[in-house]
Every structure is written in structure tokens, then in C-alpha cells.
């Protein structure tokens, strides 16, 4: 109940006190989210093989934060961080699937039980300030498309959207058949997953109807996520010298890039006098494993050290910020996090930043108002995909990690001496400048003991699972 009152308090402050300018200076906002793509797999990040010309062009105009991170290397908790500016242990959505887990949900539940279990988890997004809810309170129209796990689009405060938490007859993606034969929405976006892969019509309709209102578009297509079944023209961009596992994945990266170009063109031709703030980020990393071909023949599954893992290929992401006349083209190498994106957008839109938000705004650096920002560590947390309980993230935590400067510490949480995921059962300390692939664990080296202890102290100070909104003890604005 407290979290609900906090949301109401913020919205009343914004609307009744008139703290937000409502003029033409407020930008439109387009958030572009890649689904399962390694931080290195873009032309602008130095990959000479993958073809991402539209994102490369956007990057050339952007403030480029090349050392960005997501706190968790799996989609749902990462996406909720992008909606809330909170870490998973704060917003409470640290999982993809609620109790009793995906296998039992699909093998033992009927449709009513399945939908009730998912709705019990989607309550959490209703009880917290979200980016679309805060923007909508100031007059923005907010469209949800693509990947989104929180039930109906209204739950997160969007004013319109595609995802309804119901199965879609004939849909290529987003449906799941239960053991009893009933069809349900998988939970990851249902009708929204058609965006980019099959159609851009909902965005066309939205842009045609929005008029002079400022708008926010959440564009999170199911790309380059498996299945890697891109049209042949994208495979043709890569000749036979490219290994099969990379060719299918790169084709999906290029398909995603093509849709980004289409989206930018659509927004550019929209008859608005407002400029548009483009924000780009990846929800989590992905590297295809040549030893793990998918049974359907449509690509290769991810390597053990990418998606879901506490390693760089799962956690790092570039972050791009571009608004014509506002941001400056620059390369920023300081550490930052996707938790910083919500406060950055709010500042750009002249919307007050709620005190409970954990991130910090990158807007002063992106716009050249300041030449530098204080270096701060980045943090994160890894969980199994299935939650054992709602409202208590500490029950399921598998790994916590911190990067501070060039050093990165990963701490496992073990049960009977073993940590989930087989990513390591003891502390791991890496010096990333010398060891970017995290192969040389320095945790047992006595010369690094002071560094390890310092990182552990910072990590423990950051870790406050009692702040989970789902637990009812979140202590944000009062």
C-alpha cells in the first residue's frame, strides 16, 4: 500500500504544482532496446563483420557510453530496470517466471491458474513509479511495443500498447500451449512481439494519431533474439566465410538494425516541431555457441558465459543518447548502468526525478553541460529464471557483482556449496584492462586482498534487499 501512495504522491506533485514545462521544448522520446545482443556486436563498437549501418549512424550523432552495464543478464528484470530506474532487488522483479516456475506453470496449471500466477507478479509494476507513468502524468502519450513481461500494457503506465497478456490466434511468437491443450500468453509480450519481425503498423497508427502531443515509444522488438529466422536477404549480407552460428545471429542483428532505420525514418517524417531524444540500450548480452544448435534449426543457443551469466558478454551494453541540438557527439568511457537511463530521460523531459530512483542522470555529460562526472562503481545481481517466492529477492540471489574502475568482483551465493548456473562457487576477482575475457581469477592472490575486501564492502553496502517494493518496505519519497 505504501508504494501505491508514493506513486500517487509523485503524480499529484507533478500535475497540481505545475513543476513541468509543457512547451514545445519537451522532446519526444524513443527508447530502442535490442533483445539478446553482445556489447561488441555493432559496427560502432568495433565489430568489422556485423552490418549495423543504421545504429552506426545513430551512434555517430550520439553521446556514446561504451562501458554501460545492465544489472542482470536476463530480459525481464533488465527490462523492468529500464522502466523504473531501480535494481531488480528494489523493484522486485528478479525473475522471468513467477512461482512455481515455468515448467510447473505449463505442465500442471490450467489457463486460469497460469494467468493468476502471472498476474500476481505483474502487480509489482503497478505499485511503483515508472517512466511511462511519470511521463503520461505530464501530458505524454506513451506507446508500448515489443518485449514486455508485466501483463497488460496499462500495468506499467503506458497510455496505449500492444501487449495484453492474452494469447493471439495464429501468432508466430508469444503464445504457449499448456499440457492440457489450452493456449495462454507466454508472458514475454504476446501480440507485442509482432513489432519489427512482422509489422510496424502500430507505430504508424500511433504517430498518425498523436498530433502535437509529446510522445514516448518503447520499441523492444523480439530481435535479434532466437529464433534466428531472418529473411534470406539478411543472411545474404554474410558470405560463407562466416561460421554458421555467427551468420544466423549476425543476420538477426542486421534485421534488427534495419527496423531501427525504419523507425527513425517514420519518426523523422512525423509532422511535429519537437525534437526527438533517441535512447539505445541492450537488455542483455548474447553470444552464439557453435556446439549448441537449436532443435528447430533456426540458430544456435547462447554460450555459457553470455546471457544469464555474471560475465561481460552477458552484462555489458553500449548506451546511446541523441537529441538534435541538445546532445553532443562524443565517446564517454566512464562506467554507467541501465539504471541511469530513467533519470536521464526524466531530466531531458524536465520531469522531477523521484528520490527512490537508484540511478543518476547522464544528461549533463551527454549535453556537454559538464566535462566529466564522478566515477562510480556499477553493480548487479544474477538469479535463476524461475522465482521460488515473490517479495523476497534474497531467497533466490545466485551472484552479486561489482565493477569499480578496472576491477570486477563476482560473489556467489551457494547452497550446499554450489551456486546456481555453474558460473563459479567461490569469489572471482578480475582486472578487466589486462584480462577482458575474465580468465585469470585474482581472488586468491594475497597482493589483491585489499582490493577484494574494498569491493566486497562496497557491494555489501549497495545490497539492500529489504528495499524491495514487493516486500512492502520500500522507502522512497514520503
What is the secondary structure topology, with strand pairs?
Blueprint: H1 2-17, E1 28-34, H2 53-61, E2 63-69, H3 75-84, H4 88-91, H5 102-108, H6 111-126, H7 131-136, E3 141-146, E4 160-161, E5 175-177, E6 183-185, H8 201-209, E7 215-220, H9 232-235, H10 244-268, E8 276-282, E9 288-293, E10 300-302, H11 312-315, E11 316-323, E12 330-332, E13 336-337, H12 341-348, H13 363-366, E14 378-382, E15 399-404, E16 407-412, E17 428-431, H14 449-462
Parallel strand pairs: 1-7, 1-8, 2-12, 2-13, 3-4, 3-7
Antiparallel strand pairs: 2-11, 5-6, 8-11, 9-10, 14-15, 15-16, 16-17
Structure overview:
There is one protein chain. By secondary structure, this protein is of the alpha/beta class. It has helices at 2-17, 53-61, 75-84, 88-91, 102-108, 111-126, 131-136, 201-209, 232-235, 244-268, 312-315, 341-348, 363-366, 449-462, and strands spanning 28-34, 63-69, 141-146, 160-161, 175-177, 183-185, 215-220, 276-282, 288-293, 300-302, 316-323, 330-332, 336-337, 378-382, 399-404, 407-412, 428-431. The strands form four sheets. Strands 1, 2, 3, 4, 7, 8, 11, 12 and 13 form a nine-stranded mixed β-sheet that branches. Strands 14-15-16-17 form a four-stranded antiparallel β-sheet, with helices on one face. Strands 5-6 form a two-stranded antiparallel sheet. The chain is globular, with a radius of gyration of 21 Å. The two termini are 13 Å apart.
Amino acid at each position: 500500500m505504501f508504494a501505491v501512495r508514493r506513486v500517487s504522491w509523485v503524480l499529484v506533485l507533478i500535475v497540481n504544482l505545475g513543476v513541468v514545462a509543457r512547451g514545445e521544448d519537451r522532446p519526444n522520446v524513443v527508447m530502442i532496446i535490442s533483445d539478446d545482443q553482445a556489447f561488441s556486436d555493432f559496427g560502432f563498437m568495433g565489430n568489422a563483420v556485423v552490418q549495423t549501418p543504421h545504429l552506426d549512424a545513430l551512434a555517430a550523432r550520439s553521446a556514446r557510453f561504451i562501458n554501460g552495464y545492465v544489472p542482470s543478464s536476463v530480459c525481464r528484470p533488465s527490462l523492468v530496470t529500464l522502466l523504473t530506474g531501480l535494481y531488480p532487488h528494489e523493484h522486485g522483479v528478479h525473475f522471468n517466471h513467477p512461482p512455481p516456475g515455468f515448467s510447473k506453470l505449463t505442465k500442471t496449471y490450467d489457463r486460469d491458474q497460469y494467468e493468476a500466477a502471472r498476474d500476481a507478479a505483474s502487480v509489482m509494476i503497478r505499485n511503483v513509479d515508472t517512466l511511462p507513468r511519470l511521463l503520461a502524468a505530464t501530458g505524454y502519450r506513451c506507446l508500448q511495443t515489443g518485449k514486455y513481461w508485466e501483463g497488460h500494457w496499462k500495468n506499467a503506465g503506458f497510455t496505449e500498447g500492444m501487449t495484453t497478456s492474452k494469447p493471439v490466434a495464429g501468432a508466430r511468437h508469444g503464445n504457449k500451449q499448456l499440457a492440457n491443450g489450452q493456449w495462454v500468453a507466454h508472458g514475454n509480450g504476446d501480440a507485442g512481439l509482432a513489432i519489427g519481425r512482422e509489422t510496424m503498423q502500430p507505430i504508424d497508427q500511433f504517430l498518425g494519431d498523436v498530433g502535437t502531443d509529446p510522445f514516448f515509444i518503447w520499441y523492444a522488438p523480439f530481435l535479434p533474439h532466437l529464433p534466428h529466422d531472418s529473411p534470406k536477404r539478411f543472411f545474404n549480407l554474410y558470405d560463407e566465410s562466416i561460421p554458421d552460428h555467427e551468420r544466423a545471429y549476425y543476420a538477426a542483428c542486421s534485421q534488427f538494425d534495419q527496423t531501427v532505420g525504419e523507425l527513425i525514418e517514420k519518426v523523422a517524417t512525423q509532422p511535429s516541431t519537437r525534437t526527438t531524444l533517441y535512447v539505445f540500450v541492450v537488455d542483455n548480452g548474447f553470444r552464439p555457441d557453435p556446439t549448441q544448435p537449436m532443435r528447430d534449426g533456426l540458430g544456435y543457443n547462447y554460450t555459457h558465459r553470455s546471457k544469464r551469466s555474471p560475465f561481460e558478454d552477458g552484462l555489458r551494453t553500449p548506451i546511446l543518447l541523441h537529441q538534435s541540438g541538445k546532445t553532443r557527439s562524443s565517446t564517454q568511457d566512464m562506467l554507467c548502468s541501465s539504471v541511469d537511463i530513467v533519470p536521464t530521460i526524466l531530466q531531458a523531459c524536465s520531469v522531477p526525478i523521484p528520490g527512490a530512483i537508484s540511478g543518476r542522470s547522464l544528461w549533463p555529460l551527454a549535453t556537454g553541460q559538464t566535462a566529466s562526472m564522478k566515477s562510480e562503481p556499477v553493480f548487479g545481481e544474477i538469479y535463476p529464471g524461475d522465482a521460488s517466492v515473490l517479495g523476497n529477492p534474497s531467497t533466490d540471489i545466485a551472484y552479486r557483482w561489482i565493477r569499480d574502475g578496472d576491477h570486477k568482483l563476482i560473489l556467489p551465493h551457494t547452497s550446499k556449496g554450489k551456486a546456481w548456473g555453474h558460473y563459479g562457487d567461490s569469489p572471482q576477482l578480475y582486472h578487466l584492462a589486462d584480462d577482458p575475457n575474465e580468465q585469470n581469477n585474482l581472488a586468491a592472490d594475497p597482493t589483491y586482498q585489499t582490493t577484494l575486501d574494498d569491493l566486497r564492502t562496497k557491494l555489501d553496502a549497495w545490497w539492500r534487499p529489504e528495499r524491495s517494493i514487493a516486500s512492502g518496505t520500500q522507502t522512497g519519497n514520503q
